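PROTOCOL LOG
Step 1. Enter all chains and additional molecules of the complex.
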Amino acid sequence: MPTKTKTKAEIADIIKRIELISGENIYKCYQCGKCTAGCVMAGEMDISPYKVIRMIQLGLVEKALESESMWLCAACFACRERCPKEVDLSKIMEALRVIQVRDGKPLIEPEEVADEVIEEMPQQGIVSAFRKYN
Amino acid sequence: MKYSYFPGCTLHTQTKNFNDSIKITSSLLDIELEELKDWQCCGAVYPLTADSTMGLVSPYRSLQKAYEEGTDLVTVCSACYNVLKRTNFAVSNDAQIRKKLSEYMDVDEYAGESKVLHLLEAMRENKGFEKIKEKTINPLKDLRVAPYYGCLLLRPSEELKFDNPENPTIFEEFINSMGAIAVDFPNRIECCGAYVSITSKRKVKGATESILKSAAKRNADIIITSCPLCYHNLAKEQEQLVQSDYLFKPIPILYFTQLLALAFGIEVGSCGFESNRIDARPILKSKNLISGGDAL
Amino acid sequence: MKKIGVFVCWCGLNISSTVDVEKASEELKNYPGVFYADDYKYLCSDPGQELIKKTIVDNKLEGIVVAACSPNMHESTFRAAAEAAGLNPYRVEITNIREQASWVHSNKEDATAKAIQLIKSTVEKVKKSEDLFPQQIPLTKKVLVIGGGISGMTVALEVAEAGYPVILVEKEPQIGGNMAKLSETFPTLDCASCILTPKTAEVGRHSNITLMTNSEVIESTGYFGNFTVKVKRKPTFVDWKKCIGCMLCQEKCPKKTNSDFEHGMGKRKAISVAFPQAIPYRPIISEKECIYFKTGKCKICVKVCPVDCIEFEQEEKIIEENIGAIVVASGYDLLPKEELGEYGQGKYADVIDGMQFERIASASGPTEGVIKRPSDGKIPKSIVFIQCAGSRDNQKGRPYCSKICCMYTAKHAMLYKHQVHDGEATIFYMDIRAGGKGYEEFVQRAIEDDHVLYLRGRVARVYEEDGRLVVLGVDTLSGEQVRIEADLVVLATAVIPSIGAKALGQTLKVGTDTYGFFNEAHPKLKPVESMTKGVFLAGCAQAPRDIPETVSQATGAAAKVITMFSKNHLVSDPQVAKVNEKICVGCLLCKPICPYKAIEPEIVEVRVGCRAEKRQVATINKGLCQGCGACSVACRSGAMNLSGFSNEQILEELKSLCL
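Step 2. Run joint prediction.
Step 3. Record the structure below.
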């Protein structure tokens, strides 16, 4: 079944939610791409970090939310450290994750994680992953 | 100097060798660490949401306790450090958050009076690097050590103020004070992919591989870190790399205090080398830093 | 009681959309003392002014209130109108109901109430107004120009040509400023020295210009038309009058050191002249590096000098000059690379800034114009240029555009490609700002003819690997991350005010903005005037700009000076402090408080009862006084009063607002 396209009001509402959750003004970004230039995960993302913000600015929030990019953001803060406009992209990525999680679409469920991973991974890593993904 | 000590969950379980080496070495540097009573997990990641303060409850509790003890709080795990220090920054700068947390937890308002210090910072504050120089009885001569900072110690620098975020030097100072050679490798400040590895090992490959190759290119004998997750990702990646790239020689990864224990001449059996994922003892032996009998 | 008129301006919709102007004028009609009140669409228009004039004459008004925009805008307009109608202009007061009511409020009712309150309080002030008359003050027709770069030289030459004496002070030993360091200039690619040296030579020989290089202005007192400045002339350790410029001393001096003029790209001797076309062509000894100053031995320069002009014992001199106007042309510096951690923080020899590139591209530079990289002197096969390095960057505290980088970077890439045809020139840019005559065409030439690769995006990091520089960037047009290995990286670092500009601003009592650029009196209409009367601005001291714009603005500043000097005396504002000698006790508490040093003691004869007695009172120098009112606040006996803002007037205003 094709997904129903969101109305203008619904989109505006999501943008507002993103701004509220992240505490960031998404319109500050001027797409210089410095975040992406220094992002170690950008190569794996389907939508580059600077484009994620652009999508939100353009109201293409569904695309941003459906993208894999926010799940690949490792919250290493390199973007935030270098952003000339002092936009904290890590918080915007978090907002996208949080919206999905709060809307009942977490990335992982505990039972899906292989025993071997749980065995090997430090506790800190497991806790981090579940804080970000579920 | 006396501090409250927050070991964090990983140091208490999986990486006891890290914890043990911290305890042995810090006391020799006049850094007295007293484990915080009833500490709880810090949450591992600093919550990046502006609309919820729930994630700050647990770190706030630890900070508040350290304050009650009248001490600054020392932690070593990079993740704990990042969370605790950022929480401390938030409560010292945001009266609203502070009020909300103290009211919710029904405790006296705490406004960031205690400092949060990484063990390296505690060393810096207590002339630790000079003391290391004095107390090193087994100088790590000719050992090329690559300091892997990762992200959580350095960023966001505005809140952590740990070191220069692009060109840090504290690990180098630490390495030099033990008589070893600090290897300057560009990827020392880049992220290892962190928790992303839980879902997709393949996706963090780029990040981990470039760190390892960057260190290898500069002929590092050892990589040191203070983050168990970085440790895990870098070690895990090496298991793959030795399979796929026959030119790649594994580089042992150590927690930085393990190396300090060695420099202090602590019995090799107590340095926790046997629990490391990649055995560092052969390379240490080849540099005559441990004797054959001791090591194997 | 005085007959007062009130005029409420609509300012089109600017005021009337938020303030009910009709209600305001209606209400003021019934206010005590108001003889006439009305509102009008545009009071500043000709018919508006005519209305004011006619009303004054017809009703024999003795004071008026115009409720309109800021007095900064039209106070002089309305005062002139009143004067034409025979009313002393200082009996006209403005109530600012635009910036202070309509523009800052949204609720019409509240804004109207506030506007009415403000107008009423102004009426109270006007009730206490008095006739005031401006005075003539003398004028010294001599200008001080601070900075000997292209802007300062332009001002100096224009004013000197108009026949007035000029003192040109430059902190470096030679004039020419930053332009003297440039290779070629955009968009014509003509050599910078070729167009600059005729100017420096003319400045050097002009009979109306007194050149003071190696000097700094350290103090400025006085006022508009009558400044006294002190200039510190630093020792050169060479008697320049005797010196014939043979430069044997420079040739034989055994001590080599880094040249500031070459920005670390080349060396100089401890006794040296910065470059072959320097004006004045006279050497100076650098105390820091000279062997004699360090060890007491050497003196080779003394031995070789044919005219015996080395003077190790020379000391700095302070010179005092009386002048009428000051032009600040202190120029710019570049943001130090050390502030850019992500680009190596200055630790890589082959990461250089734009000015360093100019030096290695300059025919008179250390490489004689052959573009070689500093670390090993090799010709770079690949150069990456990074624009906006520190500019348009809030995080670095420089959110502004440095304006010149887009063009000079295109020029750099072009110069390089003209030398190294198979070399790769890549430019990271954010926007190409090429708004100038022939500028866009120039950039397109670089792209189309010289195949300079423009990548739209910022660079996150630069680091060294295997003797080359790794540049991690992005091309946001394709969305691709970009990793380039380069032999040389050129940072177009932000243009910042010349180091020391802020201190100079304090010396001259001229304000600077957050970044240290000098503030103009009005961003559009008074771009060459500072907020301090008699002090003008030229060139990059005010904001980043290129050579053509600098020359235009400097010519404008010169015109302002010439206009000022074309009169035989100046007219002073009568709104200055006034002493009531009868009650002044001569305590002089006001003297140290006065920021303009306008108060001095004086012995006067005062009548007390039926006899005369001599005593000390404070007097005001009406030229120096700027009407700030600090003295009137400090005066314990209430003898000090500010004309136009008297204690009485202000109290009446406050009473009306607060009681």
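Step 4. Note key features.
The domain at 8-103 of chain A is CATH 1.10.1060.10 (Fumarate Reductase Iron-sulfur Protein; Chain B, domain 2).
Chain A touches chain B at residues 20-23, 40-41, 43-44, 71-72, 74-78, 80-81, 88, 90-91, 93-95, 98, 107-108, 113, 117, 120-129, 131-133 (CB under 8 Å).
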